[in-house]
Design brief:
Keywords: Membrane, Transmembrane, Transmembrane helix. This protein has 123 residues and is mostly helical. The chain has two domains: 30 residues; 86 residues, Arc Repressor Mutant, subunit A (Orthogonal Bundle), CATH 1.10.10. The protein has five helices and two strands. Helix 4 runs antiparallel to helix 5. It is elongated and about 80 Å long. The model has no long low-confidence stretch (mean pLDDT 88).
């Protein structure tokens, strides 16, 4: 009886260690989406020019950014612009691209100017 209990505890411990080793080994290989200031400028340029793929825009405004408060603030502002001023999509080079009303484009242009200056100061 005691031998079975000790064996059960030992097997449980071995299983627990194996799961932890698996997690540590493969945890770093989980894909993630990280934005930099330059990525934000590129996204805004494409949005203003009208050739921003809908999937890229939706991914940006739909995720929370926890490692950079400034980019999270930009994402929130873009979400508000999307909610208020987004029009239907248009086909550009075989991809669906987002379009905005003129007021939305104006606000995106202001954000672009602000972020271009930030990236020039960072460099």
């Amino acid at each position: 009886m005691i031998a079975q209990l000790v064996l059960s505890i030992a097997l449980f411990f071995i299983l627990l260690v194996a799961i932890m080793l698996f997690y540590v080994r493969y945890q770093s290989k989980v894909p993630y989406y990280r934005m930099t200031e330059a990525d934000c400028v590129s996204l805004l340029v494409k949005a203003v020019q009208g050739n921003l793929p809908e999937q890229d825009w939706d991914m940006f405004i739909g995720m929370m950014i926890r490692d950079n408060e400034q980019i999270e603030s930009l994402r929130t502002q873009c979400y508000v612009i999307d909610d208020a001023f987004r029009k239907e999509t248009k086909l550009v080079d075989g991809r669906q691209c987002v379009r905005f009303h003129s007021e939305g484009l104006k606000q995106l242009t202001c954000l672009l100017d602000e972020w271009q200056h930030k990236t020039h100061l960072i460099v």
